[in-house]
Specification:
Helices cover 81% and strands 0% of the residues. It is mainly α and 54 residues long.
């Protein structure tokens, strides 16, 4: 197994996987927050543009 070179026991492997999962979830949460901010900015700009055209 590939992991056996780096992680000699199952517990260490599981700790690595748990840490990696935690990091990936944190990255996803950060991206979701940034996406929400971008969507809000786009909505605001579209609303302002619509108001200016009337």
């Amino acid at each position: 197994m590939f992991f056996s070179c780096f992680f000699p026991d199952e517990e260490t492997r599981n700790q690595y996987r748990a840490h990696k999962l935690s990091m990936l979830k944190a990255m996803r949460d950060s991206l979701e927050t940034r996406l929400a901010a971008l969507n809000a900015a786009i909505d605001t700009m579209e609303r302002q543009q619509g108001t200016a055209q009337e």
